[in-house]
Amino acid sequence: MEPLLGVKIGCLFALLTLTLVCGLIPICFKWFQINAATGRHRRVLSLLGCTSAGVFLGAGFMHMTAEALEGIESEIQKFVKQNRTESEGSSDDADSAQTDYPYGELIISLGFFLVFFLESLALQCCHGASEGSPVQEEEWGGAHVPGLHSHGPLPSPSRGPLRALVLLLSLSFHSVFEGLAVGLQPTVAATVQLCLAVLAHKGLVVFGVGLRLVRIGTGSRWAMFSILSLGLMSPLGLALGLAVAQGDSEAGRGLAQAVLEGVAAGTFLYVTFLEILPRDLAGPEAPLAKWSCVATGFAFMAFIALWA
pLDDT tens digits for 50-102? Predict the structure, then answer.
């Protein structure tokens, strides 16, 4: 038991260190400040942002959504089996009808619409926030770019802080559950394997978060605090896993965890499709290069999903 505990403590520090290093690189180095970049430097940063968008897209579909669907389905199966043993009068047809319903997809969609509602409510209460401003022109490269209108209306910069907060919260939920899974592993080999899989995609995702905070103009102190808070989530989940590893889980705890992860996946998909991808794909320059970068980021996350 002592070697296993030592390995899990090592994984805890590895998760924290990697998150802080990868997340703070875009914040601490001025090279990643796209507002001050020009020419080739700006194009490289734009393509790097597209790659991070592909990473977010892959993380949303191949990791968060996939894990949420699997967890919700397994927990509902357990719930149905418990009800079947307790109430013998229920028929098999009723049980199969209950499990055939796409509960996982419903919960993820509820997370999507929850953020949609909160953002619509915020914009309704602050009616002037949805109007264009000079900040919008600066964020998208200054004056009127020929052909930019063909990509539709640009996202309002006033939504940036809210969507950045949603992004951080959804990733925080996911990070807690990742750490919890590592902390609950029964053997050293399983712990190391899962931890390496988490580290492989977590570094890229957190780097993308840091880059995203820089691109929307977040202050350095708030950005560093956000990365620090996000970095503590996986160790927190791992510590919780260590705390409950010796005892049986309470009834309903697994289902509640799966539901929360499903809601987090829905919020993450909302930010990915309505904030990250539109911002990175808005400009008309080098569309095939941008597509290649997004596809590369997604493909890498899909490859890591073989082990994660």
Answer: 999 999 999 889 888 988 898 888 888 887 787 777 776 555 554 444 567 88
Please report, in angstroms and rounded to a whole number, the separation of the first and last CA atoms in the chain: 24
What are the DSSP calls for the chain, one per residue?
A: -HHHHHHHHHHHHHHHHHHHHHHHHHHH-GGG-GGG--HHHHHHHHHHHHHHHHHHHHIIIIIIIHHHHHHHHHHHHHHHHHHHHH-TTS-HHHHHHHHHS-HHHHHHHHHHHHHHHHHHHHHHHSGGGGS--HHHHHHTTSSPPTTGGGG-PPPPGGGHHHHHHHHHHHHHHHHHHHHHHHHT-SSHHHHHHHHHHHHHHHHHHHHHHHHHHHHTT--HHHHHHHHHHHHHHHHHHHHHHHHHTTSPPPTTHHHHHHHHHHHHHHHHHHHIIIIIHHHHH-S-S-HHHHHHHHHHHHHHHHHHTTT-
For residue 280, what are its two tokens?
């990175």
Alpha carbons 45 and 168: distance in angstroms, whole number: 22
Instruction: Report residue 241 CA to chain centroid gap.
Output: 21
**Cα(153)–Cα(279) distance, rounded to whole angstroms?**
11
Determine the Cα–Cα distance for residues 207 and 223; give it in Å rounded to an integer. Answer: 12
Tokens linked to 122: 């915020």
Residue owning tokens 């199966």: 77
Interaxial angle between packed helices 2-28 and 220-244, expressed in degrees from 0 to 180 and rounded to the nearest 10: 170
Total-model pTM: 0.75
**One-letter amino acid for residue 235 of the chain:** P
**Predicted confidence (pLDDT) per residue in 167-188, tens digit:** 888 888 888 888 888 887 778 8
Which two three-digit tokens encode residue 71? 């967890």
> Residue 247: its pLDDT value, please?
54
Give the C-alpha separation, 215 to 68, whole Å: 29
Residue pair 48/190 in contact (Cβ under 8 Å)? The answer is: no
